[in-house]
Design a protein that fits this description.
The structure holds 2 protein chains of 2 kinds.
Chain A lengths: L1 E10 L4 H11 L4 E8 L3 E8 L2 H10 L4 E12 L4 H11 L4 E8 L5 E8 L2 H10 L4 E2 L1 H6 L1
Chain B lengths: L10 H22 L1 H10 L20 H6 L15 E4 L9 E4 L1 H17 L7 E4 L7 H13 L2 E3 L6 H12 L2 E4 L1 H13 L11 E4 L6 H11 L2 E8 L4 E6 L8 E3 L4 E6 L13 E7 L10 E7 L1 E2 L11 E2 L10 E3 L2 E3 L1 H8 L9 E8 L2 E9 L9 H18 L5 E5 L14 E3 L4
Parallel strand pairs in B: 3-4, 3-5, 5-6, 6-7, 17-20, 18-19
Antiparallel strand pairs in B: 1-2, 7-8, 8-9, 9-14, 10-11, 11-12, 13-14, 15-16, 17-18
Helix pairs in contact in B: 1-2, 4-5, 6-7, 7-8
The chains are: A alpha+beta, B alpha/beta.
């Protein structure tokens, strides 16, 4: 149930993000979800794309610093308390979240939350036990 | 391998030879170069006052400024018609320094460069890819003549054109690469991009010089490229490359070719000669050069001398690798900092790129130092806190080991300019 995420190092300069989106567009890679974390000097762009292997390859060819990580995608009911109901079992199990970001699924009433855990395997076990719906890469791309 | 038996003369014999030659050269310059006659007269010293080697201390120093003042040919000791070649320093700060060679000088240069290459383990069976720049810079032609004298096969690539360097290295099976250490890493990176692993090629020795580099940089080059990286030393004023070289057997200090170049270490502030083992400025006297002899030339390079016998069999004194020049030295908030110290710290980190840039500025009354480091795949993390922790840790190391605060800035790969020759490590924006 792990989903492949691309992480890209970006200097905090104008035009840097545009260069990345340009490379992906040229190679017909579709971005499904993204999050940009930043400091005063640099940022890290995290992307879920339809073809992560191809995206990694074309970015590396352009000398972009990119790495892949495994994240967990969780379906959350798009209503008050939705996210909270997922965080409770994680807290109870002492699972630490490195970071997370959310997007809305098309044509559905659910939100998708991408979690980066230090220990994704244990997190998945806890979430499955709590009957949280996890989605695979394939499902994510088809949404 | 030892090229010339003169490299293992017993010290007594060597010193006797040096004294003989010193007497001759002092007389030679006194009679032929007005600059020296005037300086010696002012110091109240005559050629016949040189009776022992130590008497050299009676002679005044020669500095880079003296060479500039006598631009272009004022320091030549022979008529221009006997000069068969000139070279010149890059002259980044004003007029270049021009040096001249007679036919005999060119022959001497080839001889000391053959010694250099032989010390690096190069033989006539080797293919030497010479990526030092050809032209006014002495690196290219120096290595070229030395390698030919040795009987090796020379590929006169000169600097730059890096993809072609890789192609020929692969197609010709070059076994020796001669260039600056920073350029060797540039070639390595370009090879990698081209899908060529230099480790798999026949390349086995790097003959690296013309810029200061650290022991960690050597380790980095050796493990990445699978070669022996040898440090060589020289400067155009003295002859070019070929003044001193490490031996492949020990790689512990550079053997000075003392029967042609007399070496001293001085305190750069007082001019006082320092004993073996003490760190100071290197000073050379050429003992046998005709066209451009130099008496007690202050190199501004920092080193120290080790007289202990070496396991390679050479009896010549060894100078420690030059890790900085008095002119490279940055004074930041009153602390002396050499770029090579920073390099040494950076390369302690696994996966950190050897490309870095130090930017010095002044904000108000306070000097600031920023160190730009490229984020390689090895050190990249998708978590900000890990990258920030790395930058912080390097900042702490610099503070602990050098004693000044620096700000580490992480930049994207390939944003720091790659050198084809001497790497630019420092941008000093201070206006003082």
């Amino acid at each position: 149930m792990l989903v492949k995420q691309l992480s890209i190092f970006l200097e905090n300069r104008s035009g840097r993000l545009e260069e990345i989106t340009g490379i992906l567009a040229e190679n017909n890679v579709n971005i499904r979800a993204l999050s940009l974390a930043d400091t005063s000097d640099f940022g890290i762009l995290r992307l879920i794309v339809d073809d992560p292997d191809k995206a990694e390859k074309v970015l590396k060819e352009k000398m972009i610093t990119v790495s892949t990580n495994n994240v967990v995608a969780v379906v959350v009911p798009d209503k008050p308390g939705g996210l909270h109901s997922i965080l409770v079992p994680l807290r109870d199990a002492g699972i630490n979240i490195e970071y997370m970001y959310a997007f809305l699924a098309k044509h559905k009433d659910d939100a998708i939350i991408i979690f980066r855990f230090e220990d994704p395997e244990s997190a998945i076990k806890v979430l499955e036990k709590a009957n949280v719906t996890l989605i695979s890469s394939q499902e994510l791309l088809n949404m | 391998m030892i090229w010339n038996e003169a490299e293992r003369l017993p010290r007594k014999e060597l010193e006797k030879l040096q004294l003989e030659r010193l007497k001759k050269i002092v007389e030679w310059v006194y009679n032929r170069v007005p600059f020296y006659r005037k300086k010696f007269d002012e110091a109240g010293v005559k050629p016949e006052d040189i009776k022992h080697l130590q008497d050299i201390q009676k002679l005044p120093f020669t500095t880079k400024d003296d060479l500039r003042d006598n631009y272009p040919f004022g320091m030549f000791a022979v008529d221009l018609e006997d000069v068969v070649r000139v070279h010149a320093s890059s002259g980044t700060t004003g007029k270049p320094t021009v040096v001249g060679y007679t036919k005999n000088d060119i022959e001497l240069w080839a001889e000391v460069m053959a010694r250099t290459l032989a010390a690096a383990g190069v033989t006539k069976k080797d293919i030497v890819q010479n990526a030092y720049g050809y032209g006014l810079f002495t690196g290219g032609l120096g290595v070229h003549y030395g390698a030919e004298k040795l009987g090796a096969t020379v590929v006169p690539m000169s600097g730059g054109n890096t993809q072609k360097q890789v192609m020929l290295m692969k197609d010709f099976g070059s076994t020796v690469l001669a260039c600056t250490p920073s350029y060797s890493l540039n070639i390595y990176e370009v090879a990698k991009e081209m899908g060529v692993d230099i480790k798999e090629l026949p390349l086995r020795v790097g003959v690296f010089g013309a810029e200061p580099w650290s022991e960690n940089m050597r380790r980095e080059i050796e493990s990445k490229m699978g070669i022996d990286a040898i440090d060589i030393y020289g400067l155009s004023e003295i002859i070019g490359p070929g003044v001193a070289s490490e031996c492949i057997e020990a790689k512990e200090g550079l053997h000075v070719f003392e029967n042609h170049f007399l070496v001293e270490i001085i305190n750069p502030e007082t001019g006082e000669v320092l004993p073996y083992g003490e760190k100071g400025e290197l000073v050379f006297t050429t003992l046998t050069k005709e066209a451009f002899p130099l008496i007690r030339y202050r190199t501004r390079d920092i080193s120290w001398l080790n007289p202990e016998p070496c396991k390679c069999g050479r009896t010549t004194v060894r100078m420690a690798r030059v890790t900085g020049r008095t002119d490279d030295m940055l004074i930041i908030r009153g602390v002396n900092v050499f770029p090579s110290q920073i390099e040494h710290i950076l390369l302690e980190y696994e996966g950190l790129s050897p490309h870095y840039l130090i930017i010095v500025d002044r904000k108000g009354a306070l000097d600031t130092m920023e160190i730009q480091i490229e984020v390689t795949e090895e050190i990249f993390s998708d978590e900000i806190k890990k990258l920030e922790w790395l930058a912080k840790k390097i900042e702490n190391d610099i503070k602990d080991l050098i004693g000044v605060s620096a700000e580490v800035k992480l930049v994207e790969p390939k944003t720091i300019e790659r050198s084809m020759g001497k790497a630019k490590r420092v941008i000093d924006k201070r206006k003082i």
